[in-house]
Specification:
It is built from two helices and no strands. The protein has about 80 residues and is an all-alpha fold. Helix 1 packs across helix 2. The radius of gyration is 18 Å and the shape is flat. The termini are far apart.
């Protein structure tokens, strides 16, 4: 088995994932999502899904999170 081939493939995958996320961050920046701090869970979620969508943003995808509810465990009294 050649170890160099496997290393080369993992490096290529890493670079592709980073480029994908960078393109998503650029799309979020162009939509002015970074202009102010996220005020709620929905705005934070919209930023996250926009970054994860990456280049799909430029193919017409406009992911948004309208409402999210975070159920955190409450301490017992």
């Amino acid at each position: 088995m050649r170890r160099g081939g496997r290393s080369r493939i993992s490096s290529l995958v890493t670079v592709l994932v980073l480029v994908w996320l960078i393109i998503g961050a650029v799309a979020a920046g162009q939509r002015d999502y970074f202009g102010s701090a996220p005020t709620n869970c929905a705005s934070t979620g919209t930023i996250a899904v926009t970054i994860l969508a990456g280049p799909l943003n430029y193919l017409g995808m406009n992911p948004t999170v309208d409402d999210c509810k975070v159920d955190l465990p409450q301490p017992s009294p």
